[in-house]
Amino acid sequence: MASTVEELKKDLEEVKATTLRVRKLEENIEAERAAHLESKFNSEIIQLRIRDLEGALQVEKASQAEAVADLEMIKNEFKEVESAYEREKHNAQESFAKLNLLEREYFSKNKKLNEEIEEQKKVIIDLSKRLQYNEKSCSELQEELVMAKKHQAFLVETCENNVKELESILDSFTVSGQWTSGIHKDKDKPPSFSVVLETLRHTLTDYQNKLEDASNEELQDKLTDVNKELSHLRTKCADRDALISTLKVELQNVLHCWEKEKVRAAQSESELQKLSQAFHKDTEEKLTFLHTLYQHLVAGCVLIKQPEGMLDKFSWSELCAVLQENVDALIADLNRANEKKFQEIAEKNMEKLNHIEKSHEQVVLENSHVKNMLSQTQREQASLLAACALMAGALYPLYSRSCALSTQRDFLQEQFNTFELFKLEIRTLAQALSTVDEKKQEEAKMKKKPFKGLIRVFRKGVIAILAANRLKILGQSCASLFTWMESFREGIGMLVCTGEPKDKHKFPNPNSRICGHLLIGAAKNSFAKLMDKISLAMESLPLQSSRSITYVEKDSLVQRLARGLHKVNTLALKYGSCGHVPILKLITHEKFESACEELNNALLREQQAQMLLNEQAQQLQELNYRLELHSSEEADKNQTLGEAVKSLSEAKMELRRKDQSLRQLNRHLTQLEQDKRRLEENIHDAESALRMAAK
C-alpha cells in the first residue's frame, strides 16, 4: 500500500513537473540556452571521464609492464596469476557493459534532440504563418489609414469653408475694428486643430513611454528567470561533483571488498580440496561395502544377525517378501506424512491469499481515493485558471477605460475653453447688435420695442442651442467604466470586458444615467424650463419700460448679457449718442431673420464638422496604436526566431561534439580491448612456459 501511494505521489509530481516544463517552453524559447549550458556541462563531464580512463589506461599499462618484468619471479605463484586473469576478464565484461549503456544513452539523447528539433521547426512554421497574417493585416490597416487621411482632408476643407462663411456673415454687420482683428486672429489660428494635434502628440508619447516601460519590465522578468536557471544549474553541478566523489569512495570500497573476497576464495579452495578428499574416501568405503554385499548376495549369504536362530528357516523369497512389506508400510507412512504436510502448507497458502486479497482491496480503495483527489485538484486548477483569466480580463478594460477617462478630461477642458470663447463672442455680438437699437431710441420708441424683442428672442435661441449642443456632445463623448447591477435577485456585479474598448459609445446602456433616452429627455426638459423662464420674465415686464431684465439665478449667462446691455444703454444716454438715424440705413426684419438662420446653420455645421474631426482623430489614434502594436509584435517575433535559430545551431554543434567524444571513447575502448588481448596472450605464453618448466 505504501509503495503504491508513493508511486502515485511520484507520478503526480512528475505530471506537475512536466506541465511546468511545457509552460516554460511555451512562454520562452530561451530555455534552450539552459539546455545548451547543460549539454556543455555534460560534455565537460564526459571529457573528465575520458581523462580518468586515459589515466587508468596508463596505470594498467604500467602494471602490465611490471607483470611482464616480474613473470620470471612469480613462477611459484601461478594461482595468483590465474586470479588476476579472471579479474581482468571481469573488468573487461564490465567495461563492455558500460560501453553498451553509453551507446544506449547516446541513441536516446539523439532521439530526444531530433524530436526537439522537429518541434522547433513546427514552431518556426507557425510563427512564419502568423507573420504573413500580420503583414496582410498591416497592409489592410495602411489602406484604411490612407482612406481615413483622404476623408480627413475633405473634412478639413469643409471646416475651412464653414469658417469662411461665418466671416462673410459677420462682415455684413457694422463691427468695431478691435473685434474684427481679434476674430481674424482667432480665425487664422483655430484653437480646435492645435488642441487636437497636441492631444495626439501627448497620447502618442504616453503610449510610447508605456510600451518602453512594458518592454523593460519583460526584459527584467526574463533576466530574473535566467538568473534563477543559472543558480539551479550551479546547484546541479555541485550535486554531481558530490556524486562523483561518493562514486570514487564506493569504487575504493569495492576494490577493498574484492581483495577480501579474493582471500576468501583462496580459503574456500583449500576447504574444497579437503572436502573432495573426504568425499573420495567416503565413496571408496561405500563402493567396497557394496562390492562385499554383492559378493555375499551372489554367494547366497544374507547378512542378518541370528540371535535366536529363527532366521535359518526363512528362504530368500520370504525374506524379499518381508522386506517388500516393510518397504510398502514405510512408503504408506511417508505418503501420509507428506499429505499432512501438504495440507498444512495449503492452509498457510490460503491464509496468505486471503491476506493478499484484503491488502489488494485496501490498495484499490486508496487508488480510487487518490484518483478522486487528483480530479478534485484538476478542477481546482481549472477554476483558478478561470479566475485568473477573469481578473486579467477585468484588468485590461479598467486600464483602457482609465486612459479613456483621461482623454475625456482633456476633451472636456478643451470644450470648456471653447465655451468661454463662445461666451466672449456672444457678448461682443450682443453689444454690436444693441448699439444699432440704442441710436434710434428717442425717434422711434414704438418701432424699436418689437425689434428689441426679436433681438432678445435671438439671444435666447442662441443660448438654448449652445446649451443643447453642449449637453449632446457631453452625452456622446462619455464612456461607462463600471456597470453595477443592484437588485434583490441578482446582487451586485461588475462588468468585465475582454475585447478592445471604444472611447465613445452612442446609447450603450439603457440603465446608465448620462446616456440614451435619459440624456435626450434631460436636454429637452432643461431647454423647456429655460424657455418657460425666459417667456415668463418677458411677459411680466411692460412693453414700454426701458429698464433691463433681471433673473433670480445669480451669475447666469442671460443675466450677464442683460447687465452688458444696460451698461451700453446708460453710456449712450449719457453721451447723447441717440440721434436721429434715417430709416434707410436700418436692416430689414427679413434680412435679419435670414442672417440669424444662416448663423444657426453655420454653427450647426461647425459643430458637426468638429464632431467628425474628433471621431477621425480618435480613429487615427486607434490605427496608430494598432500599427505600433503590430510593429512591436513583429520585432519580438523576429528576435525570438533569431534566438531559436541560434539555439538550433548551437544544439547541432553540441551534437557534433558529442559524436566526436563518443568516437574517441570507442577508440579508447578498442585500444583497451587490444591491450587486454595482448595481456591474455602474454599470460598464455607464461602458462606454457611454466608448464614446460614443470615438465
From TrEMBL:
Keyword Coiled coil appears in the UniProt entry: yes
Keyword Cytoplasm: no
Protein name per the record: Coiled-coil domain-containing protein 171
Domain of life of the native organism: Eukaryota
InterPro entries the UniProt entry points to: CCDC171
Coiled-coil regions, chain positions: 8-35, 71-130, 197-236, 320-351, 589-689
Keywords: Coiled coil
